[in-house]
């Protein structure tokens, strides 16, 4: 059970030492004690290379119990190496993201400091636009109030015209009734006069007849 002149047990011990050094290096990187993570990646790469050798060697063990035991050990080394690699990848991703955000903030501050007059001009334009909007809104309110006043005046005039029309109709109706009464009175007066004249004529005829009869 040898690979490149080393036994499976020796290769396994080398892999375990590299795992310990990789965990320590990862902690130092995460705490900022180690600036570069390349050395940690190199250790992980060596562990993966040793895993390939151990995977070939444990398969050649004749005893099944020993073969199963070494299989679990070798797979555990591979799993730990993969877990350390994932942790290092996540750290590098977060670190790269922080660096990108810091760079963007620095660029934004540089633009603000370098283009302060441009920013102030933008603010002035925005303020003027808001003032124009407020002025337009005030003018619209005034126009709306004037329109409402005109409509109210027209409505009042229409009501007054309707009232005058009704009064005119009432007057006309009253005049019509008065004319009818006057015509009735005149007709009654004429009838009374005819009755009076007829009575006078009958009286004269009666007196004349009475005188003739007495003779």
Automatic annotation (TrEMBL):
What sections of the protein cross the membrane?
Answer: 194-213
Q: Which GO terms describe its cellular component?
A: endoplasmic reticulum membrane; ER to Golgi transport vesicle membrane; Golgi membrane; late endosome membrane; SNARE complex
How does the protein's chain sit in the membrane according to the entry? Single-pass type IV membrane protein
Q: What molecular function does GO assign, one term?
A: SNAP receptor activity
Q: Which PANTHER family match?
A: GOLGI SNAP RECEPTOR COMPLEX MEMBER 2 (PTHR21230:SF1), VESICLE TRANSPORT V-SNARE PROTEIN VTI1-RELATED (PTHR21230)
Q: Which keywords are on file for this protein? A: Coiled coil, Golgi apparatus, Membrane, Protein transport, Transmembrane, Transmembrane helix, Transport
**Species per Swiss-Prot/TrEMBL record:** Lupinus angustifolius (Narrow-leaved blue lupine)
The yes or no answer to whether the keyword Chloroplast is present is no
Per UniProt, subcellular location reads as: Golgi apparatus membrane
Query: What does the UniProt record say this protein does?
Result: Involved in transport of proteins from the cis/medial-Golgi to the trans-Golgi network.
The family line of this record is:
Belongs to the GOSR2 family.
- Could you tell me the Gene Ontology terms of the biological process aspect for this record? protein transport; vesicle fusion
Q: Which InterPro entries match?
A: GOSR2/Membrin/Bos1
List where this protein forms a coiled coil. Answer: 67-94
Q: What is this protein called?
A: Membrin
Presence of keyword Transmembrane: yes
Spell out the Pfam families in the cross-references: V-SNARE_C
């Amino acid at each position: 059970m040898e690979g490149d002149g080393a036994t499976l047990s020796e290769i396994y011990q080398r892999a375990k030492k590299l795992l310990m050094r990789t965990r320590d290096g990862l902690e130092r990187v995460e705490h900022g004690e180690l600036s570069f993570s390349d050395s940690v990646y190199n250790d992980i790469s060596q562990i993966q290379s040793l895993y390939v050798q151990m995977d070939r060697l444990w398969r050649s063990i004749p005893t099944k119990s020993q073969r199963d035991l070494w299989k679990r050990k070798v797979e555990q080394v591979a799993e730990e190496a993969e877990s350390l690699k994932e942790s290092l990848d996540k750290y590098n991703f977060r670190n790269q993201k922080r660096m990108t955000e810091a760079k963007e903030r620095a660029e934004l501050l540089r633009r603000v400091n370098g283009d302060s007059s441009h920013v102030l001009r933008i603010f002035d334009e925005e303020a003027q636009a808001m003032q124009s909007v407020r002025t337009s809104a005030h003018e619209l309110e005034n126009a709306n109030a004037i329109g409402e006043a005109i409509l109210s005046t027209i409505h009042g005039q229409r009501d007054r015209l309707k009232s005058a029309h009704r009064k005119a109709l009432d007057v006309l109706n009253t005049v019509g009734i008065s004319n009818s009464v006057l015509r009735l009175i005149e007709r009654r007066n004429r009838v009374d006069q005819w009755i009076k004249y007829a009575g006078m004529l009958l009286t004269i005829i009666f007196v004349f007849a009475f005188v003739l009869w007495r003779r």
